[in-house]
Amino acid sequence: MLHLRRRVLALLATMLGLLLSIGLQPQPAAADPPQYTITVEPVAQTQIAGKWAYLTTHVRSASRSVDHVRVDIKIVSGPNTGPLASSWTDPSGDTTEEISYAYGSVQQLQMSVTEDNGAVDTAEPITVTWLPAATISLAPQAQTAYLGRPAALTATVTVPDGGTLPSSVDFAIQGANSGQSGSKPLVVDSPTSGHADFGYTSQSLTSDTVTASVFDSACVTDQSAAVTVDWQPPFAATLAPATQSAFTGRTASVTATIAQDGAPYSGGPVEFTVTSGPNASRTGSATTDADGHAVFRYSGSAAGRDSIEASFTDPAGATHRTNTVTVDWADAPITATGQDLAERECRRFTAAVAGFTVPDPQAAATEYAAVVDWGDDTRSSTGTVTGPTGGPFTVSGSHRYMWAGDYTVTVTITAVAHPSDHATATTRVRVG
User: Fold this and answer.
1) Taking the domain 335-431, which CATH number applies?
2) Dmax over Cα atoms in the chain, in whole Å?
3) Domain covering 235-330 in this structure, CATH number
4) pTM of the predicted model, to two decimals?
5) Which of 101, 183, 315, 424 is such that its CA lies 20 to 30 A from the CA of 37?
6) Strand ranges (DSSP E) for 217-348?
7) Are 245 and 199 spatial neighbours (Cβ–Cβ below 8 Å)?
8) Which fold has domain 37-131?
9) How far apart are CA 331 and CA 417, in angstroms?
10) pLDDT digits (tens, 9 = 90+) for 350-399
């Protein structure tokens, strides 16, 4: 029992010692408040790369301005992180710093003041957004060009409001045609944008990479993304036949032939135009077949010479024009002859009074009209035209003579669609 009591007392003594030791340990002193209050304005701003951004720092201690205190400026995020500059406050406790950056980016900066005891007091970070002094793009991104015809590229340059447009654009070709690299003047489209056109040709089947660049107001070279130009064999477009003749009212046809590198090109769109002549402004379109042929057919409505031209647009958008061909349209001349008759007076008869031919193998009887003047002071009548396609044709009529005698019948034949094409036949009728 005594032994147990001693153990309990020893344990209590140990615990009391521990408690006393804890209570006697020195406690850490409370942190001193910052000596300086630092604010910066503006807290965010946007500026063109290469120009100055202005930052004003206010340093206060117990609400009073602090003169001749060094303010350290540090970039805490974005390009070039680390110390940037230092400046000293004026009697108002303020300092203004000019900063600049040559490239488009976003930077966060923080101002700080070091106390005499080495503690560092900091302001909240501020943000400066730098706009690129110039942005350049090149189009099209990819194109197919053909030997002997220029590839066309356009560079577009933009600057922020208040920025300065460059005066020229440099084009660089990487590839077999690098020797044609060069500079072009910038065409100003607006106060903040402009463009420059660049073209070059190739004599070899190759692929080029092209970039455009400008030297901007921040003394930085801005470069576009690279574009590609793929050179392909050239196209040839011809139209045939060179000349042909056709009768008005009939159909003439011309054939365009499109070839690439001497081989037929199929599936190509071809546009045809009658550029001059009595049938000017007639147009048509067709697509080349497996032989590279596209055919245009049209009907001539008037006599004269037509000129026809065709054009083909290749996959790169370039237009290839053919040679000019001609079609001579003429009215098919009518050759008419009379057929003498012998009839009796007071008796109505129906007979062939004339015949005619035309040199048009497609001519049809329905394309002609005939008028018969019977020569007896009666009213003329309409003749009936019959005959196979291409002729010869016959004109028939019905009439009755009231008195015996010799009469001269005049038959006038006219092409219905072309009244200027006509002929006259004379027939003698003996009545008695």
Assistant:
1) 2.60.40.10
2) 186
3) 2.60.40.10
4) 0.54
5) 101
6) 221-223, 227-232, 235-240, 243-247, 251-260, 263-264, 269-276, 283-287, 293-299, 304-313, 319-321, 325-330, 335-338, 341-343
7) no
8) Immunoglobulin-like (2.60.40)
9) 10
10) 999 999 999 888 899 999 999 999 999 999 999 999 999 999 999 999 99
